[in-house]
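Q: Predict the assembly, please.
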Amino acid sequence: MTQPLLKLEGLKKHFPTTTGGVFSKVKGTVKAVDGIDLEIFPGQTIGLVGESGCGKTTAGRTILKLYEPTEGKIIFEGKDLAPLSPREMKPYRAQMQMIFQDPFASLNPRQTVGSLIAAPFEIQGITPEGGVTEEVQRLMARVGLNPEHINRYPHEFSGGQRQRIGVARAIALKPKLIVADEPVSALDVSIQAQVVNLLEDLQNEFNMAYIFVAHDLSVVQHISDRVIVMYLGKVMEEADKTDLFSHPRHPYTKALLSAVPVPDPKIGRSRERIILKGDLPSPVNPPAGCVFNTRCWKAQDRCRTEVPQLMQIGTNHRIACHYPED
Amino acid sequence: MTSTNMSKPFLEVKNLNVAFPTEDGLVRASSDISFSVARGETLAVVGESGSGKSVTSLAVMGLHNRKTAQISGQAILNLESGPVDVISADEEIVRKLRGKAMSMIFQDPMSALHPYYSIGNQLIEAWSLYNEGSKEDGRKRAIEMLDLVGIPAAEKRVDEYPHQFSGGMRQRVMIAMALINNPSLLIADEPTTALDVTVQSQILQLIRDMQKEFNMALILITHDLGVVAEVADRVNVMYAGKIVESGSAEDIYYRPDHPYAIGLLNSIPRVDQLESKRLVAIPGQPPSLIHRPDGCSFRARCEFADRVPGNLCATTIPTLDQKSTDHFSRCHLPESELVKARVEIGGRK
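A: Predicted assembly structure:
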């Protein structure tokens, strides 16, 4: 087996909550990400799914050290990045990039497309072969933008085109890993497919690994090789895509999948649906025992006291549950 | 009350046009819209941003500013007291229909609720518009409604403020508020888009239950084709301000007739199908609503336009033609070519 490109060991990110004011005191912590282990190989896509507040975005940002991890290791090509200072991180930044959700907020409105896409070269002090301008135009053409528009500003582009600008900027330095945080959820349905296809083509071309953070399970199912399901900062289930979607073992995964609407009237109306009661509990004060026990229809006394550990239950399939589904 | 009114659909929209003059020109946000919804029926309106789905429903609610928007056509509510055209009726009359004859819930339940007033006060305000009675009666009714929409400990939570509720719970409050005066028509504009899937299925179930309970006509506006498949009786597919296809849910999903609808259905990945083939994307992007192309607005993105004889797609706006009993499509493509198109696009999956 080849060496994993990136390996996470017990990655945690806790945010302190404070009383506020001048004499602010720490009164608790939000365990946004509470222990993730994963391995990702070149050319692989891992989908990180879960509902809002589950910690998937925080996980993505902590992996890139946009947040300082509280605990755990981020091993990139054999080197632990967790203890590195921002200065020491710089050379690694060229190899790991991010695509953001909101194509309106993630591009500086005062910069031209040309200077936005050229920024990575400038920051890393790299002059590509043939010069920056030529390379930027080549990148624009590659992601499906008209290279003649190099001097235009972001507001002159539609949402889908702006997301292409974000993609061009992310691939400029030919990174080995891209964390894409909800890259298509702000786009219209007919444009989503275009951007998903573009991401897939670029992955095939450059053999990049993707960590694809999203709440839309249909898109994740389509693009991922492996999927991690999170709930309140914890990993609930992790498996190869086919395994997870055809045979979910964690009650939460099962409920989540059953809630996804299917665009087919006959199937959609006859599908068995598990409707979870209530809402996601507050991450400031998560339930004791299994974090999912307050909404789980299978919860027993044990689930309210004992935290289930993530355990292997099949080839490459792990779940954290005391009473898994068959 | 006349018996003929009872057999008519509750809402009839006829040749509705909404346009907004701007510095750059006239934005034709929705044009030539006709449809009807009966009580107990669910009409889903699907389309991308800018396709005119919200603009149309705001016109039905009489919520456009008549000084700035150019509105023509009719939106007739067949009330027990007789038909009223929302578009031409006096604003004072329309105001008295809102909340009572017709009601609306919006996408973002946080910005639709007032942060300074308790949930109870906001519900009582809506109730007292159409009911004589003390504040105590209103409060009783508010608690009853909160209970009905599944808010636990309603007597206690009625005094809480919007920020104390989660997104899903806020949307339940919005539904309670919209239904407190038993409206006959409910327009839900992307009611679950801001919510997580597990909460989305709770809210969709609730809306369906409430529709049965109050025998309402329901218009559900959404871009989510999965949601539409699950709840809609009839579907209007909108593109660039026009209805391009209209039919039963089965018509649209199993026998789509417009190349845009065919393309849209094939471009979305499905959670129940474990295939990893490339998605079939629709190329290009929607046209500007100001400088509308001549002919069919979908032409620039349509791969079948060249199969229509005589360059018709570039010169003539297609009409919404009847395909079968209740199935209409706005496309020049001959039936024989359409069958081929459906197979071709479907075969790429």
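Chain A is about 30% helix and 25% strand. Chain A has a mean pLDDT of 93.
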